[in-house]
Amino acid sequence: MNTIKHTPAMGWNSWNTFSEKIDEELLRSSADAIVSLGLRDAGYEYVVIDDCWSLKRRGSKGDLVADPAKFPSGMKALADYIHGKGLKFGIYSCAGTRTCADYPASFEHEFQDAETFASWGVDYLKYDYCFKPAGIPGNVLYRRMNAALRNCGRPILFSACNWGADNVYEWIRTTGAHSFRSTGDIQDNWTSVEKLFKSQIGKEPYTGAYCHSDLDMLIVGMKGRSENSWIALGGCTDEEYRTHFSLWAIYGSPLMIGCDIRNMSDATKETLMNKDVIAINQDAECRGAYCVPQWNNPEQAMTMVKPLSDGGYALCMVNFGDAPSQVSVQFWDIGLTSSQHKGLSLYDCWSHEDIGAFADGYADTIAPHACRLFRGKVVDI
Prior knowledge:
By secondary structure, this protein is an alpha/beta fold. It has 2 domains: 10-281, TIM Barrel (Alpha-Beta Barrel); 290-380, Immunoglobulin-like. 25% of the residues lie in helices and 22% in strands. It has helices at residues 15-18, 24-36, 39-42, 75-84, 110-120, 138-149, 168-171, 190-198, 238-251, 266-272, 275-281; strands at 10-13, 46-48, 88-94, 124-128, 157-160, 179-181, 212-214, 255-257, 290-293, 301-307, 313-319, 325-330, 342-348, 353-358, 361-366, 371-380. The strands form 3 sheets. The chain has an 8-stranded parallel beta sheet with strand order 7-6-5-4-3-2-1-8. A hairpin with a 4-residue loop joins strand 13 and strand 14 (353-358). It is globular and about 75 Å long. The relative contact order is 0.12.
């Protein structure tokens, strides 16, 4: 039985920083960095090449052909190199007639392409939604590729990417996809982080084991550096990147790094390799996080709550606003009551210390665009 992976995928994708400027040396050196910096040991295992990797036209037999100028050794050799590092190799295609960057896509070639990917040693497929024929429902197109992948002779994680369109929440799990893009594309700025995350509040019932809501790739550490000017729009502070990472983690989104990992700052490494935050993202039950809004500032201040498999909770208290704000969570709102002598002992996932046990709730003043992320254990008070 091919279950592949029931928790959110973790890895690195080439698109956010490098866009179409990709080649085998970039992929090899990025794989080297994942290992040497300890990212592999932290859980990041997929090295994924995005759009623009193939020739503009299929080969004489209808096969996808890797661009020999970018990948002179071929995709099988690249996959072997990545596998030799103890990592997994991912590639990109699209459900439409062309990819988003106008390269050959997999419409009407699903089984042929899946067999090609399997022969190359592919472990992960990001499957986009551009140039989709208007007369064919998206659920049919994703079911086609799912059938092809499940019968290609190799386990391949299926990462659907239709940006939350066409009521995807209602049907995506039926397609067999392991994750699905539930938002539009991310940009490297705080406004984009806030917009994408808030768009998913209330949709926590649609994410879970084997089919995770994907809020798009991480921008942590990009600092405005990208070959794509639309993505590199402003950059964020290290504090904003830490909040972004905390929110993606507690929501259960796949954690796919988008920066140039070969040139990360110490602050970026600290954020991306925080084992306490990653543990929340990788919790075995894969519960979605729900929102408890701040009573007097509900649009900007809130606590995201994620039930954990050990009986506790993850709590992310976040201030989206531009001024300091009180953020409080009443434990009644998450199912605990002090009348029965139950409270929470809180562990701060960023300072890595216990801050005490609390009976009725917890409150703090949070700086603009910042958060506090806790792991709470139910205790007698």
